Amino acid sequence: MASFKYTELLPLPEHKPEMRLITKEGISTTEVDGRKFLNIAPEVFEKVAFEAIHDISHYLRTAHLEQLRRIIDDPEASPNDRFVAIDLLKNANISAGGVLPMCQDTGTAIISAKRGSRVLTPGNDEEHLSHGIFDAYERLNLRYSQLSPVTMWEEKNTGTNLPAQIEIAVDTKHHDQYQLLYIAKGGGSANKSFLYQETRAILNPQSLLKWLEEKLISLGTSACPPYHLAIVIGGTSAEHTAKTAKLASTHYLDNMPRKGDAATGHGFRDIELEAEVLKLTQSLGIGAQFGGKYFCHDVRVVRLPRHGASLPIAIAVSCSADRQAKAKITKEGIFIEDLERDPAHFLPETTDEHLADDVVKIDLSKPMSEIRAELSKYPVKTRLSLTGTLVVARDLAHARIKALLDSGKPLPEYMQKYAVYYAGPAKTPTGYASGSFGPTTAGRMDSYVDQFQAAGGSFVMLAKGNRSKQVTEACKKHGGFYLGSIGGPAARLAQDCIKKVEVLDFEELGMEAVWKIEVEDFPAFIVVDDKGNDFFAETLRPVSTTIRVRSAE
């Protein structure tokens, strides 16, 4: 007969990152029946939320920046790997100035908190945390991303980036502490979080890695690699599996046990499998967005217990804007994880030597027929430097333009005359030509391409990530091109490449309006050409894989 033995499902030995003190104000203690309680004033929650959202929008963890530098120093890295890594480091340096956020998609605000059993607060903690988030998005150069469903079919931007996702659990270990994890989750990486239901048949070395290869290829680059990849196998429920994957992608679960326990069934990290999967990602050829080795910085694999009739598997990524930070409130004050404020020292002294491949300059001021003829001379994967006029249009603008076509009206002249950049800006700081203005995920516009090209426009498109076969076929049929931009360095693009921004159409859509922008030396790659060649279709081929068998010990 089994005896009772308890363990947490996700055992986590305490991890103490370097933290900085924000303030000691608003904190006090009360003694009741010989026990000390921590008193937290409402303004404390507002303060810590504001500071956290600010920090994760502008600063990165030192370890993440070290990984970017390792790409540059790795002789096995491709020129494209190095180019992306250097651009991301430049972007981090600009963002650390505290004006331009590192990504234009400033994300859904997510807070995962643990409240000690001896913590006293005056009211609704979630409300006060939300107020701090509101203040951050109101006062900083961040973009509002949250759409409120007015009806089942109609949506309206809340204009505050609220509501936030806030989850607060009871902490029975740290009675007089309030611990928080802040995450800003962009739409790209959120779209690349997946949950699958598989069977016991997949739990063998050969089947699992083959399955993982297929799924990892499907991630593509639209979530801005290099990724922090998390894979969770098993789970007491599908919902918990997905949540665990998100936490693992932030490295929140790094201190989990390294092996399981038959008596308790707690989760563990499989370090050996992590190494195998990392090797797999390096062999795919996707690299840091445009070919190479560095599809992922690192991999986390978590194994969980499961119901015998269910095998959920979750995959999640944290993108190149690796935005999260821990915080805690104790009797000593309010503390937040100390992120890297001086990323400049991770950049090499010179960068040109790492970027030896040829760059083709494209003059966007020329007629569209001449731009297409010039692009047609070069193969996919060619690195470009764009100078001239781009028109910016994304989801809502595309829907409006489609409605015009469907009603019998012609395609707007600007869609015919200019290359189309799928993007959306963050707020423009005073004295700047543009706010952070990086590319958005191209796949959301796939369904429009054939119709727009048939109508005489969208012949040159610029965005991030891989696209569907229908786009390749449309470009082959109509003579179009899709150019990939580096996902992630939105601050650098704003500071160095975007010289003028003005609203062109649909002003009422706010940041989703059609914009006309002037760019200089804007980096891009040919991804899909007018002959039906697709860089990602050529790259994303299965590779033969094997996996070691872990001993039962």
Query: How many individual domains?
Result: 3
If you compute it from the alpha carbons, what radius of gyration comes out, rounded to the nearest whole angstrom?
A: 24 Å
Our estimate of the beta-strand percent is 25-35%
Separation of the first and last Cα atoms: 23 Å
- Let me know the number of strands: 23
Strand order of the largest sheet: 1-16-15-9-4-8
Structural class based on helices, strands and sheet pairing = alpha/beta
Helicity level: 25-40%
Low-confidence runs (pLDDT<50, min 5 residues)? Answer: 549-553
Query: Which oligomerization state do the chains in this entry correspond to?
Result: single chain
Apparent shape: globular
* Helix run count: 15
Q: Indicate the mean pLDDT.
A: 92
Largest sheet data:
6 strands, mixed
Overview of this protein structure:
The protein is α/β, with parallel strands linked by helices and 553 residues long. The protein has three domains: 1-185 and 322-352, no CATH class; 187-320, no CATH class; 358-539, fumarase (Alpha-Beta Barrel), CATH 3.20.130. The chain has 15 helices and 23 strands. Strands 1-16-15-9-4-8 form a six-stranded mixed sheet. The protein has a five-stranded mixed sheet with strand order 10-14-11-13-12, with helices on both faces. Strands 18-19-20-21-23 form a five-stranded mixed β-barrel. The model is unreliable at 549-553 (pLDDT under 50).
